[in-house]
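step=predict obj=GNAT family N-acetyltransferase n=205
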Amino acid sequence: MKAIVKNTAAAFMRLIFSLNRSSKRENMRLLNVHGYMPDDFVIRAAVESDIPALAALHVQVWNETYWMVRYKPTLETRLWQWRDQFKEAQIDWFCYVVVNPEKELVGFAKGQKYAHNDFPDYTGELNKLYLLSQYQCLGLGRRLVRQVANRFLDMGITSMVFFGDNKNPSCHFHEIMGGKRLYTKNGEFNGGYGWNDLNIINELL
């Protein structure tokens, strides 16, 4: 019963947070105003010089998503996190960014190797997935996840987990992408998803 109550409360918060999101129709209209199409956006590997833009984007998307939360991460915190991340050689981790025709970063995804006893069947982790609200529902998120999946496959990694927030309105997106919900032993859904075979992502697109 406790798990049911928590899962229901999380579903309600997903609905509340989704009220601040633009629709696919509105986002396509905005693209058309600028004369863009989704295929005009480029996905490339992130480089160290992207850190200021990555940090600012990280803050902006978080604020858009959790607009009702009073205390939000600062730009200084995100700058420190990304600088610290790039100190590590990109062997066990990687990051891809989405760039619009004006050369601005509008989304990113970070992947890394995964080896924990809680889910021993998975060897890759989609660590972060962020996309500005006005660019959602245009296929860019799908392209990002596909890029991450193919990078893992190139590394010989065939499975992946993602640990998100069960209050995030994008939870359903991961299910569309073939992810299966991960539940705790007492039946709670905390925003985690698993892909046992990453090849399914290419089959979905």
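step=describe
The two ends are 38 Å apart (CA to CA).
step=end
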